[in-house]
Amino acid sequence: MDPENHDLILIDGTLAYLNDLGIDPEEVLSLIVAYVLKSPQTGEFRRNSFVQIWLSLSINTIDGMRLFLLEKENTMETSVDEFEPFYQFVFEFVRGSDSRIKVISSEEAIIYWQMLLDKRFPKSTERLQQWYEFVQETKKSITRDSWNMFFKFLVQVIEKDPSSLSGYDEASAWPSLVDEYIEWLEESGKLQKGDDMSLIF
C-alpha cells in the first residue's frame, strides 16, 4: 500500500496478490488480472476498484477469483471479440497513467505482442516473427493506433491467408507502419510483390 495514498496497492502488494492466486507475473494471466481489476498501470491497483469489482461478481475467495480469471482466459482464447478489448487495454496499461506519454517503445511492444499473440495465433507464427523483426529494425515507437490496427491486420489479413496476405489492400486505411511492413517483406524477399504475393521460405 502507498503510505501517502491508502487507496493504492503498489508493486509489493500486487506481487503478493499474484502469488496468492498462483499466477506468474510473466504470464498472460497476470495481464488478465490487471484488465479485470482495471489496473491503471504496471504494479498498481486501486483498492476501492479492487473491492467493488469482486463484490459485483459475488466473488470473495482466492479460489473463486482464480477460477473466474481462468474462465476469462479460456473465453478470450476462443473469441476474438472478447480478446480484442483486452488487447487494447494492454497498450494503455503498458503506457501508464501519465497522459503526456502517447507511445510505448518498440522493445516493450514486442515483449507484449509475444506474450499476447504467439500462442493465441499459431497459424500466423511466421508472419508474427517477421513483424517483430521489422519493428525491431525500425525502432519506431508504437502509437495506440498502430497497436490497435495491427491486431485488426493480424485477424483480417494475416490469419486468413498467412502465405500470400491476399487480403491486404494498400488503398485501405492501415497505419503507415503496416504499409511499411508489407514493403519490408517484399524488399527482403519474404513476400512476392503485387498480386502474386506468397510467403518465401
Automatic annotation (TrEMBL):
Annotated protein name in UniProt: Defective in cullin neddylation protein
Cross-referenced Gene3D superfamilies: Cullin, PONY binding domain, EF-hand
Pfam families linked to this entry: Cullin_binding
GO biological process, one term: protein neddylation
InterPro entries, sorted: DCN-prot (IPR014764), DCN1-like_PONY (IPR042460), PONY_dom (IPR005176)
Domain DCUN1: 1-186
GO cellular component, one term: ubiquitin ligase complex
Molecular function (Gene Ontology), one example: cullin family protein binding
Native source organism of the sequence: Candidozyma auris (Yeast)
Source organism, top-level taxon: Eukaryota
Its biological purpose: Neddylation of cullins play an essential role in the regulation of SCF-type complexes activity.
